[in-house]
Amino acid sequence: MAKRKTTRRNKNRRKSRKKNLFNSSLLKAFVGLGCILILVVLAGVLARFLITPAKSLRPQVTSDKSVPATQKPIAKIPPFEIYPKKEIPPEEKPPKLTPPPEKKQLPLVALIIDDLGYDKKIAEKFSGLDVNITFSILPFSPFQDSIVQLSKANGLETMLHLPMEPIEYPNVNPGPGTLLTSMTADQLIHQLKEDLQAVPDVKGVNNHMGSKMTAQSSQMYQIFSILKQRNLYFVDSRTSPQTLCKPSARLFQIPFAQRDVFLDHLQKARFIRKQINELIRIAQRNGYAVGIAHPHIITYKVLREMLPDLQKAVQLVPASQIVHLLG
Predict the structure, then answer these.
(1) Other beta carbons less than 10 A from residue 122's beta carbon
(2) Which residues on neighbouring strands pair with residue 233, listed in sequence order?
(3) 271 to each of 76, 116, 232, 241, 252, how far by Cα in Å?
(4) Is the pLDDT higher at 167 or at 44?
(5) What are phi and psi of 225, to 5 degrees?
(6) Taking 80 as the threshold, does the pLDDT of residue 139 lie above it?
(7) What pLDDT score does 237 carry?
C-alpha cells in the first residue's frame, strides 16, 4: 500500500516537472519572439533616420520641357555685376566726317543705372536728379512695377537689364530670368519673352553679367532675332573681351551701342569722380559715350555733386539717342 502511494506520488512529481518545463519553454519562446520583434522595429527606425538612401543613377525626366525655374522671384538681391578682371579699354571710334555746326554742340553721354528693382528708395533718389538718365530694371524684381511707373512719371527711359549666364555660374547666380547656355533654342526664346513681359514698355535691353552667354554666337543670334521683331535696341555691357554682341547686332541690323566706362565698380568717391571724368574725355574724343553705374548711395552722392560740371561738358541723353545701326 505504501509502495503504491509512493509510486503515485512519483508519477505526480514527474507530471508536474514536465508541465513546469513546458511552461518555461513556452515562456522563453514568447520572450525570444518579443525580443526579435523589438530588434526588427529598432533596426527599421535606425535605417530610416541614420541611413541616407542612395541616389538613383538615372537622370530624372521632368514633364516640363519649357524653361528651368530661373524666372521665379528670389528674396536675395543678386550681385550687381561681375567686372572684368582687366579693364576692357573703350573702342577707338573713327572721327565723324561731318561739317562743324555753326554752334558748338556738346558731346552726348548716355548714363545707364543698372540693376534696379530691389531698392525703390535709391531709384527715387536717382530720378530726383532731374536729368536724362536711363533706368535698366531687372526682371522679376520686387519693385520693378513701381520703378517703371516712377520712370514714366519723371520722363526717364527704361531698359530691361537682361540676366545672362556668366563664366562663374552657378557659383554666381545673376538672379531670376537668367538666360543659360544650357537652354535649348525654344527654352531661351521662351525665357527671353517672359523677361520682356515682366518689365513692360522698355525701349531696349542691356546684359546683366553674361560673360559666357555673350560669347556664344548662335544663342546671341536667337536673342537678337527676338529684339529685332520687337524693335528694341541693345547696349552691350561688355563684361567679357570675347563678346560677340557687336557682330550679332550688325548682322541683324539692331540699333547698338556698348559700354565705355563702368563708373563705380570700386565704391569710393575719389574713384567714381575719376571714372566720370574719363567718361567726359571719351565723349569729347568720340562725340558720344556710354557710362554704366549702379544703385549705390555713394554713386548717387558723387553724381549729384558733379552734375553741374558734367552738364557743362556733355549733354546727358537717353540711351536710345546713342545707339545706332552698324554699317
Answers:
(1) 19
(2) 204
(3) 28, 22, 33, 23, 37
(4) 167
(5) -65, -35
(6) yes
(7) 97
